[in-house]
Amino acid sequence: MSKGMLPEYRLSVPIKGAKSIEKGRWASQPVKGTLKTENQSYETTVKYRGAHIRKFPKKSYDFVFPSSRMFTGAKRIHMNAEYNDPSLMRNKLSLDFFRDIGVLSPEANHVTLYINGFYQGVYLQLESVDQLFLKKRGLPDGSIYYAISENANFSKYNPTTGKAKRSVTSGYEIKYDPEHSFHHLRKLLNCVLTSTDKEFPSKIEPLLNLESYFRWLGGAVCTQNFDGFIHNYSLYKNGETGQFEIMPWDYDATWGRDIHGDVMENKYVPIEGYNTLTARLLLHGNYRRQYRHVMEQLLEEAFTIESMEWKIEKLYASIRPHIIKDPYKHYSLSKFDKEPEYILAFIKKRNKYLKKRLHRLQ
User: Fold this and answer.
1) Cβ contact 294:303 at 8 Å
2) From 177, 182, 224, 326, which residue has the greatest number of CB atoms within 10 Å?
3) pLDDT tens, 72-105?
4) Measured between alpha carbons, how far is residue 218 from residues 159, 185, 259, 358 in Å?
5) Residue 354: which residues within 8 A CB-CB, separation 6 or more?
């Protein structure tokens, strides 16, 4: 692959004609095909992914591979169109940011995608958070739960309606669990929901990796993912320590833009974030100080113009040659060209805003 070129993925499926591909109604149900990358070929099953994003002209996809011939050690990969992000890089920028600050995070890399020879544009290949995710990192076996809706807000109530949820585990799905149950997650949630303030620290500490949680919280607050506190995350229970760690997911609505790609002002999300678990933790002075220490470090070292500028410019330069001919790009090339400056301006303003509010974590 030439320097500066994105990996090229070529999918072949038994669908005839360019119009069938363009209309985007061919993968509502799983379709078998072949995915070729460089000199490798993989049998796969492909299907549209997401709910509302299926309505966009540029579709996102799930690829599933047989256990006998997995894709670089993965049984499943996700191809995200990043349709509403004018930069096409916010999701990757976020997930890399979390990894750099010490939070478990899926890998994300830009590629170009062709379907039956027709160029589909620039995509973000996302790693699936599953048992193989753990194995790849040498992590102990454990349970993985996905937060799939706003009900995953660590509360008894739906945050929109205010009505009681049907179950404490509403809003979650089991991605992987050796016991095929919500037992471990239910134990964590019941601790959050039923412990008294006095007994909460002694009950939560064996169940939650606090350093990891506060780093995740700091990352979500800095990048300002409005939805990231009540879904857009996964939970991993380490089978050796018994503690949960939280991981980010779906972070395209960040760095100063919302889920529609519109402006999100830098003061929108408070320094404390928001969900019931975080609120309960920050009631205790020692936890507030621990979180403040994490935030001070992020605002001085990781979430700065100096740290982020070269990463943004590198991503921008790698994408630009391929987005020019992207047939489904949502925004103009001129807007794409302004995004690095826009993101850096957001970082500067957001950093200043958060530093002025560190006193609230005394």
Assistant:
1) no
2) 224
3) 999 999 999 999 999 999 999 999 999 999 999 9
4) 22, 23, 20, 12
5) 221, 222, 271, 295, 299
Sequence-ordered list of residues with C-beta below 8 angstroms from that of 95, at least 6 positions apart, any chain:
105, 106, 107, 108, 126, 248, 251
SS3 content of the chain, % helix, strand, coil (to 5): 35, 20, 40
For residue 113, the cross-strand partners are: 9, 121
Are the CB atoms for 273 and 229 separated by under 8 Å? yes
- The structure tokens listed for 34 are 């072949």
Considering only CA atoms, give the Rg of the chain.
21
CA atoms within 13 A on the CB side of 221: 27
Instruction: Report d(CA 61, CA 52) in Å as an integer.
Output: 13
Spatial separation of the C-alpha atoms in residues 207 and 245, rounded to whole Å: 9
Rounded CA separation 222/254 (Å): 9
For residue 208, the Cα-to-chain-centroid distance in whole angstroms is: 20
User: What tokens appear for 356 in the block?
Assistant: 């002025």
CA 198-199-204 angle, to 5 degrees, is: 125
Average pLDDT, consecutive stretches of 10 residues, N- to C-terminus, the chain (362 residues): 77 87 84 95 94 84 96 95 97 98 98 96 97 96 96 94 94 93 96 98 98 98 95 96 97 96 96 96 98 98 98 98 96 98 98 98 91
User: What's the DSSP call for residue 54?
Assistant: G
Maximum C-alpha span of the chain: 66
Dihedral sign computed on CA atoms, order 248, 252, 253, 256: positive
How long is the chain? Answer: 362
The pLDDT tens digits for 48-68 are 997 777 789 999 999 999 999
Give me the half-sphere count of Cα atoms (radius 13 Å) on the Cβ side of residue 285.
Answer: 1
Among residues 129, 82, 132, the alpha carbon closest in space to that of 110 is found at 82
